[in-house]
Amino acid sequence: MTLRGADPETVREALETADPLPGTAGFAGELDGRLVRDVLGRVPLFVERETPERWAFEPHVLEDPVRFPAGSVGEPGSEPRRVWSIPEPTPEPDREAALEALDRAIRTAADRVRRADRDVAVAFSGGVDSALVAELLDAPSYVVGFPDSHDLEAARTAADAMGRELRTVEFEPADLERAVPEVARAIGRTNAMDVQIALPLYLVAERAAADGYDALAVGQGADELFGGYEKVVRLDHRVAADTVRGAVREQVGSLPEQLPRDVRAIEAAGLEPVAPLLHDAVIDAALRLPDELLADADVRKRGFRRVAARYLPEEIATRDKKAVQYGSLVARELDRLARQAGYKRRMDDHVTKYVESLLEE
Q1: Could you tell me the residue ranges of all domains in the chain?
Q2: Whole-number mean pLDDT of the chain?
Q3: What is the rounded CA–CA span in Å between residue 43 and residue 32?
Q4: Strand pairing class (46-48; 55-56)
Q5: How would you classify residue 126: left for phi > 0, otherwise alpha for psi between -120 and 50, otherwise beta?
C-alpha cells in the first residue's frame, strides 16, 4: 500500500483546495509520485536522511530514518513543501452551539469507526477520554498496569460506574524487559519518556491482538485539543503562549511529534490504531470552541467534559487522571529495572542508557 488512511481522490482534492481537514483520520504515503502527510501527522511517514528517495511507514526498515514533515508534500528525494497548516478559525460565540457541534463531530468520528469492517478493542484507563471512546464504540475495554497501579483501580471503578465489562492485564517486570527493545525499535526512539509512554500501548495492544482483535481504539488527542494540561492554565515556562487559547494551540502543534510514537507502538503489536478524537471533524469543532469552554484554574477540558457528561456518569466525565506512564507505574518500574542493571540515578539519563543497553543485546 502506497497511501494509508484516505482514498487518493480525497487527498488530491485536499491538495487542490489546500484543505487541511478534508474529513479523514489522517493519511500519509505516496500519491501520484509525491509523498504526502496530513496536517497533524496522524499516519507516520519516514524518509532516509541521506537518500530521501527511500521512504517507509516504519522507521526500522531504514538505516537513518527522519520523519517526513506533517502537512507537507514533496517528490521523493526533494525538499518537502508545506501545503497544509493547522486552521485558526474564529471561535464560535454561542457556547451551546459550539457544544452541539462538538457532540456531532465526536459521534461522526465514532460512527466511522463502527462502520469499518474490523474488530475493535479499547485501551481503557478510567479517564474521561478513553471512557467516552469505549462508551460510543461499545467495544471491549482493556486496562494495563502493575498490580498496585492507579490506572487499574481507576479503570475498575469507571467500568463499574458505566456498567461495562473490563479486561485487566497486570504487568510483571519481565514484561517490560521483554518489550522494551521491541518498542524502542518500533518507535525509532530510545529516550526514557517516549519508551515509557509507548510501553503500555504496546502491551495492551499485544493482549488485544492475542484475543483476536485487529484494531485498538485510544483516547489520544483530547488533552491537546481541549486544554487538558496544567501548563496551558499556568502559562508557565513550558509554554511560549501568553493566553490559554494560544497554549492549547501549541499543544495541538505538538501532536505531529507525539503521534508517530503511539501509532507505531500499537502497530508493532499487530493492531491498527484508531483515534476517534483525532478525526478531522473533531479537530475542527475543537478549534472553534470559545475560550470559556477550554480550561481555567478550576476545570480543564471544560467543553469536552460537558459533552462527555451526556454519555458518561458525571463522576467519570469530571475525573482527572494521571499520565499513562505514571498511572500504570511503568515509569517507576522501568527506573527500578535500570537501577538493578547498574544504571544509577546519579548517571545522566540513566533510564535511556538502560534502554540502549537492551537494544545492544
Answers
A1: 3-82, 95-330
A2: 95
A3: 18
A4: antiparallel
A5: left
Q: Does pLDDT of 77 surpass 80?
A: no
Q: Where are the beta strands (DSSP E) in 188-300?
A: 215-217, 272-274
> Residue 345: what pLDDT?
86
Architecture of domain 95-330: 3-Layer(aba) Sandwich (3.40)
Kindly report the pTM of this predicted structure. 0.94
Contact 55, 45 (CB under 8 A): yes
The phi-psi region of residue 212 (left if phi > 0; otherwise alpha if psi is between -120 and 50; otherwise beta) is left
Q: What distances in angstroms separate CA 300 from CA 122, 196, 205, one per listed residue?
A: 23, 24, 29
H/E run at residue 122: strand 120-123
Residue 4: all three cell numbers together: 494509508
318 contacts 305 by C-beta, under 8 angstroms: yes
Is the Cα torsion angle 70, 73, 74, 79 positive or negative in sign? negative
Largest CA distance in the chain: 58
58-61 contact pairs (CB < 8 A, 24+): 58/186, 58/264, 58/267, 59/187, 59/188, 59/264, 60/185, 60/186, 60/188
Rounded distance between C-alpha atoms, residue 263 and residue 284, angstroms: 21
Nearest alpha-carbon partner for 268 in 185, 361, 330, 334: 185
Give the C-alpha separation, 266 to 262, whole Å: 7
Under the phi-then-psi rule, with left for phi > 0, alpha for psi from -120 to 50, and beta for the rest, what region is 172? beta
Residue 48 CA to residue 341 CA, distance in Å, equals: 34
Closest CA relative to residue 164, chosen from 200, 121, 111:
121
* Nearest Cα residue to 245 out of 26, 24, 92, 85: 92
Work out the average pLDDT over 323-332. Answer: 93
Q: Which three cell numbers stand for residue 270?
A: 499487530
The mean pLDDT value for 258-265 works out to 95
Q: What confidence category does residue 51 fall into, taking pLDDT thresholds of 50, 70 and 90?
A: confident
Say how many C-beta atoms besides its own lie within 10 A of residue 97's C-beta.
Answer: 12
CA 44, 46, 192, 86 dihedral sign is negative
